[in-house]
Amino acid sequence: MPPAVLNLGFLAHGWCQPRANRPPAARDGFTPSGRTVGDPFDYLFGPCDGRIIISTFASNIYRIQQALNTAARYKRKVAVIGRSMVNNLTIAQELGYLQVPQDILIKIQDINKQPDENLVVLSSGSQGEPLSALTRIAAQEHPQVRLKAGDTALLSVTPIPGNEELVSRTINNRYKLGARVFYSARHRAHASGHTRRAELKLMLH
Predict the structure, then answer these.
(1) Of 50, 85, 114, 199, which residue is 20 to 30 A from 1 by alpha carbon distance?
(2) pTM of the entire structure?
């Protein structure tokens, strides 16, 4: 559902201190819809004959839904890893915000029972947090998931200012292990949830 910009403007009438978040405020135009990520997902899944490891914000329920839907369309099972990702997926499903395709989820302990071409791993740790599941996978330190040549890694986030080095290190480690790597700076694999300049103008006027 599109935001009710006019209603928000009416509610804000008379306020002397409007507030809005700022990360991409220097960029012109409007922030693309999260739906635009669907095409890169299809581009990634279509020709891939190995495992696909997707990482995004654990709070981005819409992106998790896109990953699940695309996996179901290509008949892949999904293993979820990372405490925040598991918790948020469970809560969102219980509240009805996330529709999980039937029989798509498997336990992370069972991933070796699935052919590589039938598997997706959905992981937290997209900002390169040192103890996160994704960072441990990229460093070959995770007990269940060992990255290998033929894997495809999708990082569906934009680094938060200050985390660029951590995210770049995770990307580099994946390349070193022979994985194909897709990320937002090159492959439109993420759409920001923050406003650009045109949207801020609408709110301010």
Answers:
(1) 85
(2) 0.72
